[in-house]
Amino acid sequence: MILFPKVLFSANSPVSGRVQVVEARGVRRLIVNGFVQSVSRNRTGLDEKVWGQLIKFPYPLKDEPNILILGLGGATTVHLAADYLKPSRLTAVELDPLIIKIARDFFDLSAIHNLEVILGDASSFLAGGRPNYDLIVVDLYLGGEFFTEGGFYDFYKNINRRLVPGGAASINRIFKRSQVPERIRYKNLLTAAFGEVIEKELPGVSASRNYLYFVKKAVSK
Question: What is the pLDDT of residues 154-164, one digit of tens each?
Answer without folding.
Answer: 999 999 999 99
